[in-house]
Amino acid sequence: MDLTAWWTVTVLVGCLLAGIPLGARAVAGWGRGDAEVVPATGARPRSDETPAGRRPGRRAAAHPGTWLLAAVGAVLGNQVLFTIWVLRVHDGDTGFVRRYFPPGWFAVPRGTAVDRVAGWFPHPELLAPCLLRIPALLELPIVVLAYLTAARWLSPGLGRRLLAPSIVRATCLGWSLVFAAIEWDLHNPWTADDLWLRAASAILTVLGLARLRERTPPPSGPDRPRTAGELLIALVSVAALGQLVLELYDTALLYNLARVPGRLPVVAVTAAVLAAARWQAARQARRRRPATGPGTDLLITSLIRFTALFLVPALPLRYSLGFAPRWAAAIGGVIILFTAAAGALSEVVPRTSAAAAADRGPVVALRWATQLLFATVAATAAGLAGTRLPGYPEARLLTGSVAFLLVGTAALAWGDRVLWTGAADTSR
């Protein structure tokens, strides 16, 4: 292994050792029915701080998705300014920087309209900081806010718990160390400045998320999906967000603004799916929820635990796939999966067995074994099929993960109807 690989693996190990206990602490007590988060002071929120009494502007300011949109807008604006700078100062030739990077970077748009806007802009030489510096400052908050947005869609209380200072500091430190390793691996004349900017970004992100936590109220309603349908809506939302982040990387963060027209249909469809999913989620939140079947309850609980455990080591795991031996990422992923599954089983199985007290223990165990075996086989087959579709590694991984979860949800929901109807009610 080279230096970058050793560094990435070392950071991954450190993030696993820190992140798993921190994540476990974040979801401690979830199974005892105290998942709803109270303010850090222990005081009851003021009437104007409750979700019903907060003004729309304050509610938006308390959502990580709002700040994610702001950061994405800043990155896109930076790419426009970078294009103007390259066209005016370097006559559209990016060879001076492209030679330091692998293929697939710096596709600058050209055309009459682009040239006209670039020709209008005054003092283009002042736009030099748009090259590499702004993404170095904004990449960390974008990926952290995207993760927290997805976590909030799965569970509002979980989204707030993941804003705990210890988790935020560990996440920003671990992710920034990985970003620094990649910067060093792509060493160029701008590397020193970018490393300082990434350090500043880590500090500012920690401070900003601390402020966001202060603004975020405790959840006022149910703190997790209660049916397979609600879980599917949350999964579709997260999948659509993941696809949009991948599109952002492929175009804006790699300075490939010329690819935007060709990617607009995918972005438009994905954004429409996301909007429809969030609209449906808002409708479901106002409806009375039926009881959750044991299999669906297990999957929801596992996902909540996995999301908490996965946060800190998430980025080191992702970059281990490309800059370190893949066995490191595989081992780390398996550890997190089994830890989340074991915690969920220890929580869900006892309450299911208690609810199905009319049945003998062997009958309950047989139901669990049948349901889990069927769902695991079906979901794994779908996930492996998804990873074999064409596309770059991140897209295949996202497709495989989504396929695994969607098929697993459907399989467990079907098992609930066939095996557990009338036997157990795991609603809490």
Explain this structure.
With 428 residues, this protein is mainly α. The protein has a domain at 46-223 and 227-285. It contains 16 helices and no strands. Helix 6 (133-154) packs parallel to helix 9, helix 12 runs antiparallel to helix 14 and helix 12 runs antiparallel to helix 16. The model is unreliable at 31-53 (pLDDT under 50).
Can you give me a brief rundown of this structure?
The chain is an all-alpha fold. Helix content is 72%, strand content 0%.
Taken from the alpha-carbon principal axes, the silhouette is globular
pLDDT under 50 segments (min length 5)? 31-53
* Helical run tally: 16
Which percent range describes the beta-strand content? under 5%
Topology at a glance:
Blueprint: H1 3-26, H2 56-61, H3 64-89, H4 95-98, H5 112-120, H6 133-154, H7 156-161, H8 165-185, H9 191-215, H10 228-253, H11 260-285, H12 294-310, H13 314-323, H14 326-355, H15 361-387, H16 393-420
